[in-house]
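HOLO CASE FILE
Compound: zinc ion
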Amino acid sequence: MAEDKLPTRAEDFAEWYNKLVLKSDMADYSPVRGCMVVKPYGWTLWENMQAGLDRRFKETGHVNAAFPMLIPMSFFEKEKEHVEGFAPELAVVTHGGGEKLEEPLVVRPTSETIIGYMYSKWIKSYRDLPVLINQWGSVLRWELRTKLFLRTAEFYWQEGHTAHATPEEAKEETFRMLDVYADFCINEAAIPVIKGVKTESEKFAGAVMSTTIEAMMQDKRALQSGTSHYFGQNFAKAFDIQFLDQSNTLQYCYTTSWGFSTRVIGAIIMTHGDDQGLVMPPKLAPIQAVIVPIYKSDAEKSKVIEVADKVFFELKAAGIRVKMDDRQEVTPGFKYNDWELRGVPVRVEIGPKDVEKDSVALARRDVPGREGKSFVSQAGLASTVSSLLSEIHDSLLKRATAYRDANIHDSETYDELKEAVTNGWAFAWWCGDAACEAKVKEDTKATIRCIPLEGQPDAKGKCIVCGSEADQKVYFGRGY
Ligand SMILES: [Zn+2]
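Model generated. Tokens follow.
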């Protein structure tokens, strides 16, 4: 039993995370090295995330389609940086139907190449543009060091791929989708994120510009939570994606891609979780409220269950994802711990006294103990619970934002930077030179998480590494 106990975050954050993912039934290890099995509780969370993102994609004019998971090897050789970036991570199929294939096939690590190939067939004229397609699926990148959700060989995601007539439109799309990701993280997952641009050395293989949203976990490490890339004409030239413009001249398209994955489930766990277990953000929680009936005698039971059933149907009718925990074989105390571990935002307790008083007890997952408990009337309970859920969302977001901001240090000297990244992020001037970036990485293991799009000072400063003039401040931090 002791062995199975969840360590506190302070004792061992990494082990707290690993055990929590398993104990809360989010995911399990697979017999295939590097891969994960997402269990129903974890998958329901992902489905809720998908719904929130998919709605936003469609509101911004995108449609879904599906492309094959196998890609001819030769496609990867068409874009030099892309193949160099992905070569070490490729899984290659050499045999099919018992025979050696003429051309090996790659299990997609990402789909720019095959989608680019198809776009070259579909796009003929400026009238065909823009093309705004998203695909939901999984990809495979050969990884040996596994951490459930955060780094696995196969993971689930969406990848949007768009083609445009002008660089301005393609860049606008790149930033539009970054905004969509940020809006989703903040308003659905209650994770505060910083929007920014990746440096040359951190950008996606083959991109002209990569943008990112970065979040701080409770161990103060950074997690890249979604990326949106501008390719210029790189992929269009590699795959001949051309169109006739309005003056009948053949032009190459400008393309983008953007992706968001099950990694963000890891971000949800590490942003909100506590020593008792998960703390699910209410808008995405697989179960938003759980009802625990409490009784001793059979006489109490029938009265309590009657009210519990009534409450269950009222909450359900109001669109709240509610579960009735009517297990007979375990005590209410066991149930409390169980749902706390799984992070259900609101627990509704109903006992014989509540039946008499027309009340119920509500317990907030984000505020453990007495402080998070309230006794409310059964009348209007659905709207009471709905407002409580949105209050919990606001409170989680506020808490995570305060935590992040308290652990970002304005560093003025290189020594301060070195100290800062051992216990948070450093916000410091950078001249733009890759050598300065590399020195920080070598000395501290911290990378430039992003050049933030908002909050840049008007003045210029001196690079924290070399002292040359710098016109931008960046975030340095150790990442996942
Ligand atoms: Zn420098």
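CASE NOTES: The chain is about 35% helix and 25% strand. The mean pLDDT is 96.
CLOSED: yes
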